[in-house]
Amino acid sequence: MPKGIEIRDAHFPGRAPIDAYGNGGFRFAEMSHRGSLLCLPSGIHGWDFTEGDALDAEALSKVLDEAGEIEVLLVGTGRELRPLPQSLKAALKARGIASDPMSTGAAVRTYNVMLAESRAVAAALVAV
Fold it and tell me: Does 6 have pLDDT greater than 90?
């Protein structure tokens, strides 16, 4: 018996370079997504985060859950570089993850290069 429309969290079950960003979203794997993204070893996930929200361990809990497979986390903080709070840097470092905040555009470009090099990289990309 049909249940009607099922709303699920946005998730692409694989790794893919980001083809474009802007206008409040991203394009990758011949798809588009409005809003922010977490690019993790488990795939690309929609991230309920907007520019100016507090960056903390709770906001990046999905990243921390996959810590064993991530060496570097690129954090695209929006249009401008925003430093990561010391408590977040410490939580990431405690799990063996180096963090590197930068503008979203720089994070997208760096992520694509590191992904092409098969590096253990993840990205938290705030939509611009």
Answer: no
